# Entry
Amino acid sequence: MDVTVIVPTYRRPDDLRRCLDALKKQTLSPVRVNVVRRDSDAATEAMLAAYDATGLPLQIHIVGVPGVVAALNIGLEQAIGDVVAMTDDDAAPHPDWLERIAGHFQQDQRLGGVGGRDRIFQEGRKDDWPSQDRVGISTWYGRIYGNHNCGVGPPREVEALKGVCMAFRRAAIGSLRFDRRLRGRGAQVANEYLFGGAIRLAGWKLIYDPAILVDHYPAARPDSDQRNQIDQGALRDLVHNATLGYLEYLPPTRAAAVLLYQLLWGSRLSPGLAAAVIYGLHCDRKAWPGLREVTLGTWAGAQTWWQTRKCDIAQRRAAPLPAAKQSRNDC
# Structure
């Protein structure tokens, strides 16, 4: 299968060089590598001008809008072939990354997206995360299990993939684009959840296979969302984006349950009322301000969904799975 790879990048020239070097070593060569950089990023511009791209079908695209959503959408517009794979500039895909991705799409015609495991490295050493069976799923009331970096076991169907290691069938994407309503100046957290949610809503499957591997060297993000040290503004953006996804792609009763869980319980990083009380009693000074941001983010996400629910519908809908494929027996 022909695969285009999209790599959005911003001010990480050394990381990007490592990523491109890894793409040169793929056992299944990509038909195109779309690197999308910011127009103000002089460091990346200089690195790409000097980079030896021999053997790599590299195309460089420039975006003037902050955020990963705009960059990914430009990459999608310039994609060719059967599959679009995406990774981050601070990741290095393993040599069989594209071969394994293509293999899944060849085996299952109902597969809309596939993702894998990102082995996280900190200070040059691989982090030893406990192995997890529950990956990319959530309970009916909204407790989320990410764990894409430490999943084990066979390939299985999931609700969400992780942006550093995911790929989608172009026939499933159709006119779908990453949601421009998402907030945040850099990572725009939850963009892959909404994109995958649209694919699933159209009838396609998402699969997680921990044998599909990238080495991930998490670099500093250009906005205030610093992974496990989210400030209040970034938390509000995160909750806004997640709320938008729940209302857009979950059944109404489940969306209501998830939002109640988000507001009444939550987690330490994203506290609802109960979490704020518990962690506040343990002298966590961010608990009550966090609750405020979760509440405001939930309200803002609901407002965005309501005000824009009839706008740009085509860009929020994946191509439907053909009826013949929907009725096909797994055996």
